[in-house]
Design brief:
Length: about 425
């Protein structure tokens, strides 16, 4: 009799569980299983998208928060980088980055910061707004690459929206998309059709369309990614050395008279050949991890350091504690920062040494030219690390090697400049 009661109770429990699970699956369906809502093309206001995707929108708004990085490097506060790295003032002398070069704020500030930066002058062209606004697609459809040559001052009044949902999502299907034509062209040259990319690949491509190195072609100001020889620092430098489309330099340093190239946030290139990139870990896996809220799974649109979301960003793969993971990141970034400062300082000393040599009577011009080429390469190797946003974590071994090369080349530049004056002025 007792056994029958136990059996009946067990059956009742099983039936109850089936009913609860069935109700959860079919009656109380979580939002991530509800069909997406289409939004008209040309609607760039994230608040409009947020009416249908409130969790994503709520997390996107967190990008307006300005705070230091959990590791002590980077962060989203608008602070001049030269305060921590004084060598910037010498190394970028004669160029806009010596006047204004701050830490990057979040995507919602892209247009605002473009309007306010001291690097913009009346000669600045429309190419500079390429990665600052969700309206890029509209402008490119209307004007093609002609927008890149237009005065930026003519385009700024048109820019009402910074980087928003439509930069990365097709409003009709909500599928990920790439808007930047420069990225599409660069990938095509590498034999990759972005339109056929998997969702996993797109979770990096939508970031890579802007977080990259680029240059403007002379005359047309067409935005080009210098990937013709590869994505590594020396390959990009060799690409520039070939003077593509007549591009020679971004500016000439007023002291050393060296033709310089300025690197621009090469996050995608650095990540691509790093441990995570090679293992197939997408940018969004770490910087926009999946979250859950009320049973709904969604991708966080707070694009931030994974060290703020360690549980969701890191511990889905890594079993170590949050404290241990944070410590490892801090250690890696600390080593890179130490080498980056050393490299930047040595490069600035090379500028000074070449300037002194150039002022000497009867200086050996051939030796001076060699010194300038060594310095140009040294600064490139320092800057392509300094301009990248992970303080080396995207690719620690490559980054430390690159900084080591920078220090070595800068010392060679100093030695060569000194040799250029040996015997100079003697009769």
């Amino acid at each position: 009799m007792i056994n029958k009661k136990i059996l009946s109770a067990g059956i009742a429990v099983v039936i109850l569980l089936v009913l609860v699970v069935g109700a959860r699956v079919w009656l109380f369906q979580p939002e991530d299983q509800i069909k997406g809502v289409s939004i008209p093309e040309g609607v760039h206001d994230p608040a409009e998208w947020g009416k249908f995707y409130p969790l994503e929108y709520r997390s996107y708004l967190k990008n307006r928060e300005m705070a230091p990085s959990p590791t002590g490097f980077g962060g989203s506060e608008k602070v001049q980088k030269a305060l921590m790295e004084p060598a910037n003032l010498m190394n970028f002398k004669g160029y806009g980055f010596s006047k204004d070069y701050t830490e990057d704020r979040g995507h919602p500030y892209a247009v605002e910061d473009l309007r306010e930066t001291k690097r913009v002058t009346p000669k600045t062209t429309g190419a500079c707004m390429t990665c600052k606004t969700a309206q890029l697609g509209d402008i490119f459809r209307e004007k093609g690459w002609a927008y890149a040559k237009m005065p930026l001052a003519e385009l700024l009044p048109l820019l009402k929206h910074p980087i928003t949902c439509s930069n990365c999502h097709d409003p009709k299907t909500m599928n990920l998309r790439v808007m930047n034509p420069a990225f599409i062209e660069a990938m095509a040259k590498r034999g990759i059709d972005v339109s056929k990319a998997s969702n996993k690949e797109m979770r990096s491509y939508v970031c890579g369309q802007c977080h990259v190195e680029y240059y403007f072609e002379p005359e047309t100001f067409h935005v080009v990614f210098p990937w013709g020889k590869g994505l590594q620092p020396e390959q990009i430098y060799d690409y520039y050395a070939a003077k593509p489309a007549g591009f020679v330099q971004d500016w000439v340093h007023p002291d050393s008279q060296t033709k310089m190239i300025k690197a621009q946030h090469p996050d995608f290139e650095t990540w691509s050949t790093g441990t995570h990139g090679m293992a197939g870990v997408a940018c969004a896996d770490c910087h926009m991890p999946f979250m859950r809220d009320g049973g709904r799974k969604y991708s966080s649109h707070w694009v931030t350091s994974p060290m703020r979301t360690v549980e969701a960003s890191c511990r889905t793969c890594h079993t170590q504690t949050e404290a241990w993971l944070l410590s490892r990141v801090k250690t890696t970034q600390g080593h890179v920062w130490d080498m980056q400062r050393r490299a930047g300082t040595t490069v600035s000393q090379a500028h000074e040494a070449i300037a002194r040599a150039a002022a000497a009577a009867d200086v050996k011009g051939e030796e001076l030219d060699k010194a300038r080429e060594l310095l140009r390469r040294a600064q490139w190797y320092w800057d392509i690390v300094s301009a990248e946003n992970s303080m080396g974590f995207h690719n620690p071994s490559q980054v430390l090697n690159t900084l080591g090369r920078s220090v070595d080349l800068a010392h060679q530049a100093i030695a060569t400049a000194n040799r250029a004056t040996v015997g100079a002025g003697r009769k």
